[in-house]
Amino acid sequence: MKLTFQSNMYLKDPKALPVYVERKVHREEDLPPIHEHEFYELVLILHGQVFHYFENGSYRLHGGDMILIRPGQFHRYVLDDGDSFELINCLFLPELFEPDWLTAIDPDGKIESFLLYPFSNRKDEFHPRISLALAESRQVERLLEEMLVEQTQGRAFSGTVIRLKLFELFHLILRYQNEAIHREKHTGSRRTDPKVIMIQRVHQYLAENPELKLDIEQMANTFGVSSRHLNRLFKQQTGKTVMEMLHFIRIERAKLLLMHTNDRVVDIAARVGYDDTSFFTKLFIRKVKCSPGKYREEMQFSKVH
């Protein structure tokens, strides 16, 4: 049976703010059945891979892929046994696009066209997804995370800030799509550069296995380069060394666990790859500017209020 997801399942006050952002890890046992919804759903796959069944077709999604599901379109995710994937999605109603907003922010009607024909190829035919480069994916994730923080904290003018960030996100996606089409027209595309592919694979490995001990030498040997060369290339592409990226991924995963579980800090530290809880706590304070316990307290207080 096909289900229809209603907006009131997610949106507390659709008239005041017809937008909802959520970050979630999906496993086989909690995947929803085939369904449609009365809202738009913009999805960024963060980590892992999953089959996406959409209308009458299917294709595999990987970290860095984005999809847009329009109201009334049926879809579902299917995982292989034991697999999981993490996404961050943004649900929004058509009411978001008030004429005054669109006139001021999108005078050429680019966003309206995108919502009707998302991720089109050179022939302006529908394409089921857009695959973002690593830096692009990180920028989209950052914007969605900022929207999620605004939604969680509910500070003054948060509704306006969320709307503006969503419109910024639309324009970024349109830019990335245009650049992807331009790259397709030229041989030797940056996206097919072996160095770029190597960095993307390393990043994907870190994102999917943050709890494992990292052996940079062994990882570099796998790609036939020195650890120094790997770090240099990685920093050129991402702005961080391999170890800096691993710490970043671990801390971000810890923040989610602190927000959405009641696990002890020592257990969360172990789950994200730190046997030394003291080291984890000091690193967390340096990166987040507060202790894990304080972060959990503030996030849970924001949810209640």
From TrEMBL:
PROSITE patterns for this protein: HTH_ARAC_FAMILY_1, HTH_ARAC_FAMILY_2
InterPro entries per record: AraC-bd, Homeodomain-like_sf, HTH-like, HTH_AraC, HTH_AraC-typ_CS, RmlC-like_jellyroll
Q: Reply yes or no: does the keyword Zinc apply.
A: no
Q: Which residues form the HTH araC/xylS-type domain?
A: 200-298
Please verify whether the record's keywords include Transcription regulation.
Answer: yes
* Coiled-coil region list: none
Q: Which UniProt keywords apply?
A: DNA-binding, Transcription, Transcription regulation
Entry superkingdom: Bacteria
What name does UniProt use for this protein?
Helix-turn-helix domain-containing protein
